[in-house]
C-alpha cells in the first residue's frame, strides 16, 4: 500500500548519533536539499532505506535474468544512486 505521512510506522527513531550527517553526503546536496535535511532529521535515512529496499526488491524480481537491477555505472564505477545508498 501507499505510506501515509505522519503515521507512527513511518516515523524513524532518532538518536543523537543519527543527527550528524556524513559530510561527504551533505556536501553533495544542493542548498534546498540541505535545508530539507536540517528541517526534517531522518529524511536522508528514510531515502537511503527506501532506495536500498527498492534495489533489493528489484534484484529479487530479476534474480534469474541477465540484468538484475545493477546500480553501478560501469563506465565510471559510480553507484547509480550516489553515496546515499552506500551509508
TrEMBL record:
Ligand for members of the frizzled family of seven transmembrane receptors. GO terms for cellular component: extracellular space. One of its GO terms (molecular function) is cytokine activity. Pfam families: wnt. Belongs to the Wnt family. This is Protein Wnt. GO terms for biological process: canonical Wnt signaling pathway; cell fate commitment; neuron differentiation. InterPro entries: Wnt.
Amino acid at each position: 500500500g501507499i505510506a501515509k505521512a505522519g503515521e507512527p510506522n513511518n516515523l524513524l527513531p532518532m538518536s543523537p548519533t543519527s543527527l550528524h550527517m556524513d559530510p561527504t553526503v551533505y556536501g553533495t546536496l544542493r542548498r534546498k536539499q540541505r535545508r530539507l535535511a536540517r528541517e526534517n532529521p531522518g529524511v536522508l535515512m528514510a531515502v537511503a532505506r527506501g532506495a536500498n529496499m527498492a534495489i533489493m526488491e528489484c534484484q529479487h524480481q530479476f534474480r534469474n535474468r541477465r540484468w538484475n537491477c545493477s546500480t553501478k555505472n560501469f563506465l565510471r564505477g559510480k553507484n547509480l544512486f550516489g553515496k546515499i545508498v552506500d551509508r
